[in-house]
Amino acid sequence: MSRLTIRIIIILASVIFIGLVSTQIVWVQKAYQISDQQTKHEIELALIDVVQNIQMHSGDAAFLVDPVKMISDNFYRVQINEELQPYYLESLLKTEFLNREINYDFQYSIYNCFNDSVVFSKIVTNEEDHSSELQNAPNMSWNDDGHYFSVFFPTLRLEVLSEMKFWVISSIILLLVLIFFAYVINAILHQKRLSEIKTDFINNMTHELKTPISTIALSSDVLLNPKVIENPERLMAYAKIIKTENQRLQNQVERVLQVARLEKEEIELRKKPCNIHELIELAVPTIRLNFEDNKIQIRTHLNAEPHFVKADEMHLTNIIYNLLDNAAKYSDKHPIINLATESVKNGVVITIKDNGPGIEKEYQKMIFEKFFRIPTGNIHNVKGFGLGLHYVKSIAEAHNGWLKVKSKMGEGSTFEVFIPFGTDIVKETS
After folding, report:
1. Cβ pair 188, 364 in contact under 8 A
2. If we measure between CA atoms, which residue out of 71, 81, 72, 73 comes closest to residue 110?
3. Count of structural domains within the chain
């Protein structure tokens, strides 16, 4: 399965996921609106019935235009100029709400029409039994008939939502199913990617180890020739080849072991004051020697002052070497590398810029992952296991620093690594 196909699958899956979630949200909103409107309508009808019952009880045949006013979503005011007996009103409210299946807690209040003051208020809960209370209720009333009442439903929204259990549960189930499938797809793609990385690592390791082993084997065969033994110059030349290739093998194995120790958190940093400029001046000749055939140019601009940091000297040296080695490997036939140092507020920034082809944006975050190498097909034109940048990033972060990359296709890449001064260094330089 190609990367293009994987991208298409991910995009389509994302669109379907977003579409289903959005559709479900719209359905739930519509269902809530319908249920809410229906509930409000039933409450208004129940309150109108209460008004009519009060008028029939008092013998008032006057017609009231729109006596029920909805002040807010859960607060209603009923305008009626009648003598209101609280517990009679409560009985009517409970009866009419029950008839219309409005089984919600509510609070009713009776007001004086002349000064809008509350003369009586009570909370009625659905769980309580009020039958005996109403039968034995005192006859509370007022001499004047200038009163109106209000009804407040404190839990109306929650009650409406509770009546939508089917919609809520179905939405939750759908969301869980979608999340599960998204997790499965992500796990499958992740495993596939790990498999590709593993395969690529094995291929690279085979290639990287096979070449020096073959070179050592050939050189050993040549040394077994008596004629070569009699020629000191040829003997020395092949001995150097064996030593060089053996060192190369050791370096590759050490890189793998270093990363393995990093993953197990077994590396202990032995920090001490380190002269970054001195470490750079030691690493640069080694890189020049390794890439002598490519006519490499390394231009240094060591401007950091102070340039001492508290770090592990060996690992800091490896950081510099790996970044220079990486820049040289991925540059053109004639690498030009600019290495600069700069002091910032809390430490030193080492910048290494190459004249390579650049890194595509989609790979710029992936290059720091273990064993990852920018795909080049089956062409092994670049050596390595894909461990260098992962190692550099891990060591920089272990020093409380960071590693960043800036790259543009056709314009090369720039790596910046920050190493803090350390408390002791700051005190000495302040």
Report:
1. no
2. 81
3. 3
Please state the pTM of the whole predicted model.
0.49
CB count within 10 Å of CB 72 equals 9
Task: Classify residue 165 as exposed, middle or buried by CB count within 10 Å of its CB (0-12, 13-18, 19+).
Answer: exposed
Shared-domain flag, residues 283 and 249: no
Range of the domain at 405: 271-429
Which of 233, 263, 293 finishes a domain?
Answer: 263
Domain end position, chosen among 204, 239, 263: 263
Nearest by Cα to 412 from 350, 353, 328? 353
Q: Which pLDDT score is estimated for 211?
A: 67
| Letter string b/e over residues 381-414, b meaning 16 or more CB atoms within 10 A of that residue's CB | eeebbbbbbbbbbbbbebbebebebebeeeebbb
pLDDT tens-digit map of 211-228 = 678 888 888 888 888 877
167 located within any domain = no
In terms of domains, do 242 and 277 share one? no
pLDDT at 378 over 60: no
Beta bridge partners of residue 274, listed in sequence order: 309
CA distances from 52 to 58, 68, 148, 268 (A): 10, 12, 14, 86
For residue 63, give the amino acid letter: F
